[in-house]
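fyi for ur records
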Amino acid sequence: MAKVSVISLLILLALAPTTIALPNGISGSSVDSGCLCHGDAVPDDSVEIRLTGLPEVWEPSVSYELTLGVNSAVATEGVALAGFNLRSTAGQLSPIDGSVQLSEGELTHTEEGNAQRSWQFTWTAPSKASTNVRFSAFVNTVDGDGAADSDDRWNSFEVSAQGPKEVWTGTDSPPVWKSIILGLLLAAIVVNILPHGGGAVEIYRKKSTDSEGEE
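which gave:
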């Protein structure tokens, strides 16, 4: 009887991930293709994802408080309501409270955060000006029955944040290409604006000749 009980327990543990639906979120390669355990593994446009708090142009090393939220027609009954995974191509993502955690450099919900459909966190911009930063997210909304099935719905989301243009402040040596361009501009000014060689002497001689004729 004891042996049968142990085997039964092992079977239940093996089946647990399919019924519990990962309340602590997923990250890394496990989420590359989306929320495959929910909604027949197909994204649904009825799940509307929004990321608020991003500036029009981010400043280096500045921290911004962002909010990831989702609207869905899936019923908000039961303990579990939604989950997410969010990545950025640059900068540092950080949790603000116990509803969000950092996993493999990505943000995902905790078991506490599984009971809500809006999450707050901070993003610290890169220390140097660079190209635009891309944010991508997968968000699933569940009906709270504890099973990952076709009754659930999920979708993906992507947005870019524009970075500032690179500006030389003079604290460091300017890049070589900038020095070359500056040199070419100065050369153009000398050639096209200043008098050509001998010009000043010719003007002086002309004035001298005119003076002699008057006498």
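Confidence is low (pLDDT under 50) at residues 2-21. thats all i got for now
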